[in-house]
Specification:
Pfam families: AAA, AAA_assoc, AAA_lid_At3g28540
Order of helices and strands: HEHEEEEEHEEHHEHEHEHHHEHEHHHH
GO biological process, one term: response to stress
Cofactor: Mg(2+)
Number of strands: 13
Helix content: 40-55%
Family: Belongs to the AAA ATPase family. BCS1 subfamily.
CATH architecture of the largest domain: 3-Layer(aba) Sandwich
Structural class: alpha/beta
CATH superfamily of the largest domain: P-loop containing nucleotide triphosphate hydrolases
Distance between the termini: 132 Å
Bound molecules: adenosine-5'-triphosphate, magnesium ion
Strand order of the largest sheet: 8-7-10-11-12-9-13
Radius of gyration: 31 Å
Number of domains: 3
InterPro entries: AAA+_ATPase (IPR003593), AAA_N_dom (IPR025753), At3g28540-like_C (IPR058017), ATPase_AAA_core (IPR003959), ATPase_AAA_CS (IPR003960), Mitochondrial_chaperone_BCS1 (IPR050747), P-loop_NTPase (IPR027417)
CATH topology of the largest domain: Rossmann fold
């Protein structure tokens, strides 16, 4: 009978010897790495890669529902061996686990079993594997993860009911599931095409941004009257690019420090949206309450402010310069692929520093519904591509300014949901357009009258003045 210590020693020696003479090299990738509470990114990438690329060759698989509970995620089961081939070289992956000492109380998930992957290959391929294969696996695995992930809509305004228990993170999120696409978006076709190609160019120009030394980001300013599809456009962009959305509510951000923190916690492949920028900030750095959503005008629930020195007061607000820094690239260190979008109903109210090129690279105007946009809506809502009323509608759309939201609403009044008869719906739209046309004519008339009156008054005043002088 051999003493325990000696036995352990001999086993260790035997392992050493076999490794010494073995022509094979083993690389182990543990599930939990240095930062103990986070699953290692490489481990996760391998898991995705093997499930995707090599699963067909494995005998024992396990399937789990992905986060969105729609896609099945298949991965290689524990204690299973899979073969892979890379540039003609064969290598083997083992998924395995090591039960940890039972006496330990588990502090983090996975303490019970230490799972790991082992990669075995011939030592003559060492350089190929380390320099090319492993980076390849990492990239592939990441791509698979991205394809399977559930996209999310983040918000910093957690006062609502959602996820309010998640106090720790500055952002709270819900699933992002907006059906809007560029196909369903009613707007000028050329305009739409130019936006799509701009987005594609952005997505593909990682190297270019690195070369010119810019952060990999792009800013869009969406402007136009209410109901012209600015928010819808953002959803369509996110769907097109497969990005997350961060909806940044500036009025809920206390100061520039908090703004920076929010920004740093965003991840790549995301769109950061600040809606109604003109209502959120003004040039003196004073934040305005937005009355649009029925928020209170004044902070009368706050304690009366003690007189403080102006410097201190400054830090309690998000200022324009804070916002500019935020866009400019304090943060370029935290990786790229971000799009920043501002929306506004009044472009002319914005400070030129905010929207100059370089900050907002592209200004996109969303405008009233014209015939091209209407055709998209008619197709979406009524499945009509041609109709005898189209000619009249085309004419009326040119003469009135109706937003796509109103056109859609008039074409399909919510109360008459069941009547999807195109004839009825389009006739309803014609009616509404005619009414809008009359209203517009009246408005113009009134404006004209007012102008004439003012002119008259001015002339009178001038005449009076001239009389006095003489
Ligand atoms: N161009 C469009 N194409 C398709 N649908 C549209 C379009 N514009 C508006 N709609 C419809 O009208 C609704 C309101 O549009 P949306 O919220 O995108 O407008 P908005 O420009 O963001 O308005 P606001 O300035 O008030 O925020 C949407 O739910 C959508 O169904
Ligand atoms: Mg909107």
């Amino acid at each position: 009978h051999i003493p325990e210590t000696l036995r352990l020693y001999l086993t260790a020696c035997a392992t050493k010897l076999t490794t010494y003479f073995s022509p094979y090299i083993t690389i182990t990738i543990p599930e939990y790495c240095a930062e103990r509470f986070k699953r290692g990114e490489f481990f996760l990438a391998i898991e995705s890669y093997l499930g995707h690329a090599c699963a067909r060759r494995a005998h024992k698989l396990k399937a789990e529902l992905a986060k969105d509970s729609k896609n099945l995620q298949v991965s290689v089961d524990d204690h299973e061996e899979v073969m892979d081939e890379f540039k003609g070289v064969t290598l083997w992956w083992y998924a395995s686990k090591q039960p940890s000492k039972a006496s330990l109380i588990s502090f983090y998930p996975g303490q019970e079993d230490k799972r790991f992957y082992q990669l075995v290959f011939h030592r003559q391929h060492r350089d190929l594997i380390v320099d090319e294969y492993l980076p390849f696996v990492l990239a592939e695995g990441r791509a698979v993860t991205v394809r399977n992930r559930q996209r999310r809509l983040f918000t910093n305004n957690a006062s609502g009911s959602w996820n309010s228990y998640r106090q720790k993170s500055v952002w709270s999120h819900v699933k992002f599931e907006h059906p809007a696409t560029f196909d369903t978006l009613a707007m000028d076709t050329d305009h739409k095409e130019s936006i799509i190609s701009d987005l594609m160019a952005f997505q593909e120009s990682k190297e270019y941004y690195a070369k010119v030394g810019n952060a990999w980001k792009r800013g869009y300013l969406l402007y136009g009257p209410p109901g012209t599809g600015k928010s819808t456009m953002i959803a369509a962009m996110a769907n097109f690019l497969d990005y997350d959305i961060y909806d940044l509510e500036l009025t809920a951000v206390k100061n520039n420090t908090e703004l920076r923190k929010l920004f740093i916690e965003t991840t790549g492949k995301s769109i950061i949206v600040i809606e109604d920028i003109d209502c959120s900030i003004d040039l003196t750095g004073k934040r305005l309450k937005r009355d649009k959503k029925g928020t209170k005008e004044s902070d009368d629930d706050e304690k009366p402010k003690l007189p403080t020195d102006p410097e201190k007061d400054e830090t309690s607000k998000v200022t324009l310069s804070g916002l500019l820094n935020f866009i400019d690239g304090l943060w370029s260190a935290c990786g790229g692929e971000r799009i920043i979008i501002f929306t506004t109903n009044h472009k002319e109210k914005l400070d030129s520093a905010l929207i100059r090129r370089g900050r907002m690279d592209k200004h996109i105007e969303m405008s009233y519904c014209r015939f091209e946009g209407f055709k998209v809506l008619a197709n979406n809502y009524l499945d009509v591509a041609e109709h005898e009323l189209f000619g009249e509608i085309r004419q009326l759309l040119e003469e009135t300014d109706m937003s796509p939201a109103d056109v859609a609403e008039n074409m399909m009044p919510m109360s008459e949901k069941k009547k999807r008869d195109p004839n009825v719906c389009l006739a309803g739209l014609v009616e509404a357009l005619k009414k809008a046309k009359v209203a517009k004519a009246k408005e113009e008339e009134e404006a004209e009258a007012k102008k004439a009156k003012e002119k008259h008054e001015q002339e009178e005043a001038e005449a009076k003045k001239a009389k006095e002088e003489t």
